Amino acid sequence: MTKYYDENTLMYLNGNFVRAADARMDFYSQSLHYGYSVFEGIRSYSTTNGSTRIFKPVEHFDRLKQSAEAINMPYEWTTDELIQITYELLAKNQLGDAYIRPVVYAPANMSFAPNEHSYILIQAWQMAPFLGEKLLRVRTSSFQRPNPQAFHMRAKAAGHYVNSIIASQEARANGYDEALLLDINGHVAEAPGANVFMEKNGILFTPPAGHILPGITRATVLEIAAQLQLPVEEVHFQVSDMLHADAAFFCGTAVEVIGLASLDDQPFAAKWETTRSAQIQKAYKEKVTEPVASTTTVPVA
Ligand code: PMP
After folding, report:
1. Residues 91-147: pLDDT tens digits?
2. Catalytic site includes residue 3
3. What is the CATH T-level fold of the domain 10-125, as seen in this structure?
4. Which residue has the least CA distance to atom 7 on ligand 1?
5. Which of 61, 200, 226, 253 has its CA 20 to 30 A from that of 119?
6. Mean pLDDT for the chain?
């Protein structure tokens, strides 16, 4: 198990840096009882010049705000202040390659009524960059992604993740590395915590927004594909289409770009190293560790 904190680790909690081991929250929080909170998963990297860089922080903290607003949670912070606080948090914990987890949560409230305020915490723990050798064995899940008429699928809301957890656990219990979930129409949607792409005859395909969390990594892959002049189509497709693909990969902040070995026990046709997908993986790895202008990397001791 990952060790998330020790007795010296600091987390940010509602205006203060506090020891994670001493931090407290209200057990009557509406978030704990009903999964009514929003969160982000962000990464920082030690760049090639030794500075620490949070990857796409504006996109992540803007999404945190949009997620909160989508489910009527008051949101009182600016993206700029949260980025600054996160750099401070990394510096205080002496973290370079890290996973960063902001959570916006609700006060004590056992009813379904809206709240006047929200609370915020930001945690960070060490996470080494993924080296990219591993390929995943994936199984189509018996669980579908939620109906977009039941949830705001663009919001990264805690409650949505019960669906992710049961799907992922089902795949692992059956000996696979991860699940692939379909949408309510039977089209390929996404993984429990990542988006999906397939490659066929030099073209990349990925499901459009609507039934998925359209990820920030997915957007980065689209940028990289454009730079590599690799055509991408955002279209619905089925498992049967994917089984005939040359290659496929998952992408997300935590998994970065990770190739698939097989889907439902059928290996992908092309050798991973020879695919355009592998080129995207390599370009992604390079992009996240590029140093950025000093104004956006201001570690404060
Ligand atoms: N889909 C789901 C369900 C996720 O949880 C994630 C991870 N946040 C993603 C896709 C990928 O999103 P991102 O690239 O922004 O991390």
Report:
1. 999 999 999 999 999 999 999 999 999 999 999 999 998 766 799 999 999 999 999
2. no
3. D-amino Acid Aminotransferase; Chain A, domain 1 (3.30.470)
4. 193
5. 253
6. 95
User: What is d(CA 64, CA 48) in angstroms, rounded to the nearest whole number?
Assistant: 28
Task: Name the token pair of 259.
Answer: 């190739």
pLDDT bucket at 295, cuts 50 / 70 / 90: very low
- Ligand 1: lining residues by beta carbon, under 6 Å: 41, 164, 190, 193-195, 213, 215-218, 252-253
Please give the CATH superfamily to which domain 136-287 belongs. D-amino Acid Aminotransferase, subunit A, domain 2 (3.20.10.10)
Is a pLDDT exceeding 80 seen at residue 291?
A: yes
163-181 pLDDT per residue, tens: 999 999 999 999 999 999 9
Q: From the CB of residue 257, how many other CB atoms can be counted at a distance below 10 Å?
A: 24
Q: Ligand 1, atom 5: nearest CA belongs to which residue?
A: 193
Please, where in the chain does CATH 3.30.470.10 lie? 10-125
Distance 301 CA to ligand 1 centre (A): 31
Pairing, β 38-39 against β 98-105: antiparallel
Write down the catalytic residue from 65, 92, 156, 200.
156
Is residue 195 within 8 Å of 280, Cβ to Cβ? Answer: no
